[in-house]
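#data-curation
PF: Archiving a pair of folding outputs for the training set. Convention for this channel: one message per protein, sequence first, C-alpha cells after, nothing in between. First:
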Amino acid sequence: MGIKFIYGRAGSGKSYYCIEEIKKRIEEGKENKLILLVPEQITFQTETRLLKHIGEKSVLKSEVLSFKRMAHRVFNFCGGITHKRMNEAGRNMLIFKVLEEVNERLSVFYRASKQQGFVDVVSRTITEFKKYNITSEILNATMQSMREDNEELKMKLSDLSIIFDKFNELLHENYIDSEDELNMLSDKLDDCNIFDGADIWVDEFTTFTPQQLGVLGKLMKKANNIYVALTLDETHGSDETDIFNVTKNTEKKLLRIAAENNIPYDGYLDLNNRENYRFKESRELNHLERHFFSYPFVHYKWANDDIRLYKANNNYDEIEVVAKDILRLVREQGYRYRDISVVCRQLEDYEKIASVIFNQYNIPYFLDKKRDIVSNPLIVLITSVFEILSRNWSYESVFKYLKTGLTGIDGEYIDILENYVLANGIKGKRWLEDWWEYKIDPFKQEGEELSEEEKQRISLINDIKDEIRTPLIKFYSDIKGKHTIRETCVALYDFMNSLDIIERMDSLSKSFEEKGIGDKAKEYDQVVEIIMEVLDQAVDVMGEEVIEASDFIKILNVGFEKYEIGLILVALDQVNIGEISRIRSRELKALYIIGANDGVFPASNKDEGILSDMDRELLRNQGVELASDTKTKAFEEQFLVYTTLTMCSNYLMITYPLADFEGKSLRPSIIIPRLKKIFPNIKEESDIFRLKNNEFEKVVAPIPTFNELIGAVRRDYDKKEIEDYWAEVYSWYKSKPEWKEKADSIFKGLKYSNQEQDIARDKIKKIYSGNSDNLLFSVSRIEKYAQCPFAYYVQYGLKAKDRKVYEFTPPDLGSFMHNVLDEFTNYIRDKKIHWDELDGDKCRAIISDIVDKQVGESAASILNSSKRYEYFTNRFKNILTKSVSVISEQMRRSNFDIFRNEFEFGSYKDSEPIKLKLSSGDEVFLTGRIDRVDTVELDGQTYIRIIDYKSGSKEFDLNQLYYGLQIQLLVYLDALIKNSKYFLDKQVIPGAILYFRIDDPIIKSKRDLSDEELKEQILKKLKMDGLLLKDARLVKAMDKTMETYSLVIPATFKKDGDFTKQSAVITEEQFDILRKYVNEKMIELCEEMLSGRIKIEPSKDGKFTYCSFCNYSHICQFDLSLSDNKHKVIQKHSDEEVWKEITSVVVKDLGGEK
C-alpha cells in the first residue's frame, strides 16, 4: 500500500513507462488487478495503445478505466444503483421546474430565473457544486460566517441554496444525478473489494476535482500501489507563474489525501534525466519543449526544418495550405493520416471550411466534435408544431414545419401551396376555412372568371391544405387548454405516429448509409431515441404537472438543447481535427495548430460565470474551494499552450489568418513572436514567401488541381506564361471518363460570352405585340429599355414576374398615392370648392375620407390586414394631407387652373395613342398617362403645364433626357401640343413640365418656427422641379406672390427683372428642340428594340447603376470581370454641353431645321 509519483516533462515517456510497467507485471505472472486510469475521452485510444504494446494478454490481465467507467464497473459488480440515472437533458427540465416553483423566493436571480438561458447557467453551477462537494448546508454556513459588507454574495448564495435544495429534493424522489456518481462510487468502495490489492497507474490527468480526489483517497486504501504520472520538471518550488504550478498543486493535494489516510509516500521516479522519449528524432522540438517558457530566451542555433510558421490571408487560405502540406507529408515522407492532427481553439470557426477543403483534397478526416440536435429536422418539426399554435398559423411557422421533409407531403405540392399562401396573405383563422377561393393568379384582374385549369388548381390546393392541417387540428384539439405533461407527451407521440415519423427517420437513415454518409445516418438513428428519452424523462420528472402547450415546448427545448451526438471514428487511418482542449493523443508525429491569433490561443477568459472572481476569492477565504477563477484559468491556459506545442514528435506547423470572415484584421498570438525569438533562423511563410517551393505544388488532388488547371488555361489563353506541366495535367483529365466532360468544358468556358444574341425582327415583333395587331408601348417602358435592353426583354418579352407576396410594395404605394390625389382633384372640382377655401383641416378631412374609401376597396384591402398596415394607412394620410395642402397653396398662388388630371393617351378616352413612324416602315403606338394638365390664358394665348406626381425624390435632369432615361414629360408635352386642337379647340404653347414630390418633409431648425415660417420651409422642401418657359409674365402667373424668388417653382429674378442662371427656364424654341429630340430618341430606341437587340448593358450614372433596383440580376448574371459585360456609362455633361449636343442632333436629323 502506497503512492508513488512519476515525474517527467512532456515527451519524457510517462505513459510509455506506465504501459511498460503493466507489461512487466503481466510477464511476471502477477495475479492482482492492473488498472490504468485515464480521462474519459482517451479510454478507447489508450486501450488501442495497450493492446498494440502488450498484445492480447492486456485484455485479460489489465483494464483501462476512466472515473465514469470505474463507477459503472463498481455499481454493476457491487450494486448501489436503486434509482434511474438522470442525464443532462432531464436535469435541465428539472431545473426549469425548480425555477418555476421557487422564483418568488429569489432575490438577486428573480428576473434572471424567468429567462430560458438561465437554466443552463444554474445547471453548470450545480455541476460545479457537486464536483467540489459543496452542499446547501455548506452554502448556508458560509453565509452565516460572512461579514455584513458581503451582502450581494450572501444574497447570491441564499438564492443558490434555495435552488439547490429544491433541486435535490425533487431529484431524489425518483432519480440520481449523474454528477453524484463519483460520490456514490467513493461511498461504495468502502464495502467493495473489486480493487483490493490492485496496482493502479493514473495517467494523463493535470488536475482532479474534489470528487475525483475522494475516489483516489479510497483507492489508496484498497490498492496495493498507486502510481500517478504528472507532467513536472525537476524543480519543486511554489510559484503561481511557473508553467508546472498546476500539476504541482495536484501533487500537493494527492500527498495531503495520502497523509490523511495514513498512506505511505513511496517517493517518485524522475524521468527528466533520461533521453526524451518523444523528441528523440527532432532536436528542434526537444529544444522547444525545454525552452519555450525559459527567460532569458535560449536561442536555437541550427537550421529549422521541423517547425514552420505560416501567415495566411484568411481561414480558407490557412486550411488549404495545411491540406497541401498534409499530402506532402503523406506522399513524400511516408506519414500515415492517423499520425497527423489539426487542432484549433474554436472548432466552429473552422469545421465547415475544413470539411470542404479536406473533401476536395481527398484527405480522410474525423471531426472530433459533438453535434447538437436542435437543427435536426425532427426537432424542428416538433418545435414548429407548437410554434404554429403559438403564432396563430403564421406563414413562417407553417412552412418551417412543412419543409422538414417529414410530413409526407410532396415537395412540389408544398411549393404550389407556398406560392398560393404568399400571394393571398393566408394566415391565422383562414387556415381553418373549409374551402379557399382566393385568386389563383395574383396578376389576374378583379372580377375575371376562372379557367377550368385554375379551378382544378384551387381544388388541388384545398386537398393539400386539408392533408396538412388534419393531423395538426386533431393534435391541437388533444392539447387544448391545460393538460398534464404526461397527457401532452402521449398526444405528441400519437401525432408523430400519425405522420409515420419513426419509419420516415429510419428510411432517411438507411438512405444516408447507402450514400456513404455514416455520421448523418447515425444522427438520424440517435435523434429518435433522444426524443423518446426526453419525453420519458419529462413524464418522470414532471408527469403530473398541469401546464399549457406554450410552457410544454419550453420544457422540451430545455431538454433538447443539452443533447449532443458524439461520433466515433469510422476509419483507422484519418487525420484528427479537433479543439486543443480535447485532443490528448501522445503518438502524434505531425501537428498543425491553426487559428493562432491573439486572444484565441492562448484564450482570454473573461466569462466569470454566476459567481465572479471576487466571489470565488471570498469563498476561498472561507474555506470553500470552487473551480478556477479567470486569473487561475489564464495560468492553466499557459500550461495548455505547453502541452499543445509539445504534443507531436516530428513536425509542428503553426498558422494564423490575418483577417476574419468579415475582413477585419487579426493579430498573431503571443506565441508567434516568442517562437521567432527562440528560433532566430525560422522564416515566417505566407502566400508570397514559401520555404518549401515545389514546382508541382498545385498538382495535389483531382478537384483542387482541376480548379488550378482552369486558371492556367485562362492565363495561357490570355498569352501569359504558364508551367509546362499543365498540358500533361490536362491530358490526364481528358483520359479519365469521370473528368473528360469537365475538361472539355474548360475551353468552352474560355469562349463563353455573357451576352445574348439579337432576336430576329419578326420574332421580336410577335413577342412585343402579343395578341395585338399593333405595336403598342408605354412611354415609361421605352425609358426602361434605355435603362437596360435585357431587363426590358425579360420583363416585357419573357414576361417574367416575381413571386407574388401579399404585401404593399413601392409600386403599390405609388399607384395608391396617385389614385388618392386624382380623387382629391375630382372631389374639389365636382363640389366646386375653390382653392382659397381649403385649409389644413379641410384637406385632412377630404383625404381621410378618400383614403378610407380606397382602403375599403378590394384592391387595397391589404391595408386592413394588420395593425402594422393600419399604422401605414395613417402615415399615408399624413403624407397626402401635407401634399394636397402644398398643392392647394401652389394653386392659390397661381393663375393656372387644372384642366385635366389623369389625362390618358391611347385609351381613346382623352386622346389617341402617340404614333411613331420608324425608318423600317413599322408603326409604333405609344400610350401614357399625365398626372395633371394645367392651363392659363394670357393675352389670348393658352399655355399648358404638365405636372407629374412622384412618391420618391426625382429631379429633372437634362443629361438623363439626352440618354433617353427621362423623356416622359417631353413626349407628353409634344403630344398635347400637336393634338391640342382636338381637346382644347385651339393651339397651345408650352408653359412648363414639372415634377411634384409627394412627401411629408421633416423640417429641422435650431429655433422655434412661427406657423408662417414653417409653411415657407415646407413649400421650399416641396418646390416643384422641371423646366419653365422663359417668360416673366408666365412665370409670375405660376406664382403671383413672387417678387425675386419663388417657393413653388424653380425660378428667381435678378434685380433688373431678368432670370438668374439658377432658374430652370428655356425659350419656346428650346422647348421645340427638346420635343423634336425626344421624338427622334423614341424612334431610335424603338428601332433598336424591334431590331431584336437585347444586350445586357445596364446604364450607369455616376455611382448609381440601374442594377441596384433590378429584379433580374440573377438571370443576366452581369459581371464586370467579363470582357463583354460593360455598363452603358451616362457621361456627365454640363447643361450647356447637353444643349449643344441635342441641338446638333435635331439639326442633323431634320436637315438643318430646328
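PF: Second:
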Amino acid sequence: MSARVFASLCAVVLAGCPQDVVVDDSAPRIVTFTASRTSVEPGERVTLSWQTENAVTVDLNDAALGATRSVVINGSESVDVQKNSLYVLTARNSNGALSRAIVAVSVNKSRSGPVLTAMPREIDVGQEVTLAWSALEGVTLSATPGGGIDVAGKNSVTVSPTTTTTYTLTDGERMTTTRVLVRPTVLRFEASSDAIDVTDAGASVSLSWDTANATRVRLLAPGRAVLVDSTAADGGFTDVLSPPVDGSRLLRYELLVDGDDAQQVTRVLSLPVRGSPVFTSVEAPQFARVGDDVELKWTTLGADTVSVLRAGLEVHRTRDAAAGTFRMTAPANDFALELVARSERAGVARANVEVQIVGAPSITLSTVPASVTRGTPYRLAWAGQYVRNVHIYDGAGSELYAGLDVNDSATAPLVFNAADPHTFHVVADNSLGEYANDTLTVTPANAFTFTPSLTGSIPSGRRVSLSWTGGETLYGFPHDEVVTRSAAFDDISVTGTRLQFANDADDEIAPIVTTFRAPFYGRIVGDVINVSTNGYLTFGPGNDVNYLDAPLPSTRLERLTLAPYWEDLRLEAGEVHWQVKTVGSEQVLIVQWSNAVFGAVTGNQFQLKLFSNGQVDFDYAVMNVSGGRVGIQGPRGDEGVVFPSNPVSGLGLTFCAPRQSPVTLPVRSRSPYGGFVRANGSFVTVSARFDVVHPYELQLSEVQLAPVVGREGQWLEFFNARSTAIDLSSWSLDFTDGGTAPLSGSVPPRDVRVFGATTDAALNDDAGVDVALSNLDLGTSSGSFSWSREGTVDEFVWSSRVNGFAQVNDPGPFRYAGDAPAAPLRAQRCLAGPTYGFQTPRQHGTPGTPSSCGFGYGWEHLAPGYFDVSSRGLKIIGATTTTTLLTVDLSRAPFSFFGVSRSAVRVSADGYLTFDLTAPNDLFDLNAPSPSSPNSVIAIFADDLGGRVPGSGVFMYRAAQNEDPWASAPHWIFQWHHWSHGARDDLNFQVKLFDDGVIEYHFATMDSGGTISRYGSGESANSWLENGAGDQALVINAQALTPGISAFTAYRFFPR
C-alpha cells in the first residue's frame, strides 16, 4: 500500500487519530500492599491485602508462576504458597499511568530456591529497572558486569544498567538469576555536508556517529563494500568519492548497530548530488479500470523541469519540478508513462510506470485432472478474468493457498487425496477492491459413504452409529468404544530417550521431535508433540502448569490430547521417556511416566502408545493413587472419549482402535468428524457430517396454556434460531402424565411452527395451528412438558397462567444488571401483548409470528469462518498491556445496533466494542451488565487483555462484497490478533458487523499458557451482547469453563 493510500485510509477509519481517551492527572498510588505472613511452611495460606488511590484497574502478578490476573481496586485475596513467591501489585489510572508494589513470601526449607524478577526486562540506556526477590534472610545480589549490590534489609532495589546485565541472587547454597536487556541506541549520525556537488573533483563526505550499548557498528553504502566494521561505540569515516560522481542518484549510507540477543537498529542518511536531478519518489496505481481518473505523483531533487511522455510524445511539462501531479483518464488498454527530469546545469533522470487496465473479476475453480477417483491425487486450478490475487480455503475455513499477482488461469501448488466429498472456496480480486468467488465440492468416483443410524436434525450429544459397505477399515476416527484389557506394559525406562524438564520436573512441558506420524481425529499428527509432567501429551501448544484436572472432555485441557492420567503430578524422583518402536506392521510411539508422585504417593508408572494406524493404548504398571482423568480429547473442547473409572495396576485401555463397520460416537458439532481409510497404499480422508441442533437453537417461544375457548384452543410454538431449517421428524412432546405426542414437519430458518390440539380455526380461535396434536392437554395451573429425540432436549415449566394470555418465552440465556458473578443465567418470560382470534374480548398472543419479550437479538451457533485480516487490515492498537479504548469512524458504512444506526464505535484492547462513545477507559463491568457507562457493549471476549508478542495487535478492516469467503455481504471486521491475558496465552478472535445489524463472533486459536487458569477458555472472560440500556445481556459465556469458549467456533447474533 502506498503512503498516499495509507494516509487516506487512516483519515477515513480513525475518528480524529490519536486515540480518544479521558485524561486523569491524578497518578495512581498504592497506599498499602501487605501479606499476613512473609515466612511460611510449604502449603500454608497467606492473605494479601491492598489499598489504592486513583486507580481504575489493579493487577496481581505471581512472579514465580508468571501468572497475572485482575483484582478489585481495594481488597484482599488468599493464596496457597508452595514455594518461594513474589507478588507484584500494579495499579493503573484511566490515563495508563501505573504504580507498583511488591510483597515477598519465603517458604522455609523450600526446594524451589529464591525467586528474582526484573521489571521491566528490556530498557533503553538511561531507564530504570526494579529488581525484587523472595528468599530467606541473608541473601546477596550481584551484577555481571558490575559487582555486588547492597541489599541489606531489602527485598527490592532500583538499578539503571548501561549494558545488558545478569543479576544473581544467592540464598545460602541456592541461587537464581535474571537478565536485563539494554537495547542498542544510535545517539547521533551526521554528515559534514547536506549535499555533494557534482562539479567537485575528488568530492568527499565525512560521516560521524555516537552509539550506546553497541557490540558491533557497521557503515554500509548500498552497492559497495562495507565501509566500516567496528566494535567501537563511536566513530567516523571520510568517504572520498571517485569521479565522476553519479548525479542520477542519492548517496545513501546505512549505520547498522548490533546489540545483545541479536537486537539491531538501523539509521539511514541520504545526500542528494547537486547539479543532476533525481526522482526521490514516484507514485502511480498498478491497476485501473477503464474511465478511472489515474493520478501520477512525483518528487525530485535538483530538477528544473519535469516532462511526462506517453508513447514517446510529451503530454505534460511543469517547471514546478520539486513535486508534481499528472492526471489522465484510463484508456481501454494497458499503458505506460515515462517521467523525464532535467537540470539546467547537467544531467537527466528518468522513471517509468506501467498501469494495467482491469475490470470486474470472475473466477471458477476446477480440479486437475477433471475427473477425480477415490485415492487418486488431484490439484485445484482456477480460470477467470482480471484475476490478480487468489485465496483458496478448505471447507473448515483454513486458508490453503494465497497467490499474489497471479495469472487469470493457473494451478495451485497443492496436492489433495480424499475418499469422500471435500469442499473448497476461492476468492479472487482485481487489486481494486472488487472480488469474485466460487465454491467447488469435489466428489471422488466410488466415494466412501457413511450411513448413520440417525438422520435429520439431531440434538447435540446424541450417540449415532455409522456403518459402511465394502469391508474397509476405518483409522484415526473418534468412535466412543473403549476396550478394557490386561496391561501390555513395555518398559522403555532403559531403552527410551529421557525428556528433560526444569523446575524439579513439576508443572513443566517438554517437546518430542520425531518423524513419527499417525492419524488422530481426522488429521495426521506428530509434527508438534508436547509432553506434560502432569500425565498427558498434546499435539499442539502445551500449558506447563495445567495441573488442575477437570471432568473430560473439558476446555481446561489442551486440544488434541492423550491423557493416560491427568493429575497434579511431580517427577522430582521420576522420569519421562519416549521411544518409537516397530510392532508388527505398525510403528508405535511410546511415552512413559515412571515414579510419578501425587501428594505423598510415589511409585506410579504408566505409559501411552500411539500406533501409526491411529490406535491409542494406555497401560498401567503400578498405580498407587486414585483419582485423575483418563481419556482423549479432540480439536474442540466439547468432544472426547473418556474412561470414567480410576485406572489400577495391571489395567490396559484401548481408544480409537481401527474398526470395520459399524462405529458409534456422540455428535456435538455440525463440523465434520474425520477419519481415514487406506487407498493406493496411503491414508485418505473420510468424514461424516451431522445436522446437530445445539441448545437454545430450537426454542419454545410461545404457549397458550389457558385459552378462553377450552382445550381446543391450546397451542404451543417452536422458534428456530438457526439460519437453516430444523427437521422435527422423530421428535416428540412428552407430558408429565407419561403421554407423548409425535412432532413432524420442519421449522423454517428464523421462523416458527405452531402445534395445537386442532387445526380447525373455528375451534382454536384462528390460532394458525400448523400441526394437530390430538392428545395435547395443558389444562392445569402448573406443570411441565418436554421435547425429545433419543432423550430429553429441553423442558418448559410453568407455575401460573392467565386466561386468554399466551406466555412468551425467550430462553436467552440472559444475565441482568445486579446479578452476582456466579448467579445462574436466566430465561425471560412475559405475557403476550398483541391480540388474535374472534372472541370478545380477543385473546392475546402471536401464534405463527416470531416474538420476544423485548430483547432485540437472538443467537445461533455458526460454522467457523475466521477471516484473518492481520495482513490486510489497519492495526489500530499495537502490542500493549495498557488499557486502550479508541473511537473508530463507521460513517461510510453505518451499523444498525438494536435498530439504531451507529456511525462510530469504540474499540477496546480488552476484547469488546461499545457504542457508548463517552465512556472512560476500561470501566466495563466484567461481572454483570450495568446501566452505568459503558453500555451498548459487543463483548466478544471481554477480559483484562493485551498484546505481549511482536506482531500482536487489534486490527480493523472493511470486507468488500464477496471478499470474505464465509460471508459475501460487505461488513466490518475487528480482530484481536495474538492477544493474551496471561503472559503466554495466544488468543485470536474477531467480530464481524454486517450492515443489516447481524453480529458474528469468530474464535480461532485460543491457547492458554503459563498459568493454571484457562484464560483461553473464557475462565475470566465474558462473551455476550449487551442492550443499549446496559441492564440485560444475551450470554454465550460468562466467566466459565462449562460451556466456556472453544477454539474454532463461531456464533451469530441476529436482530428480532
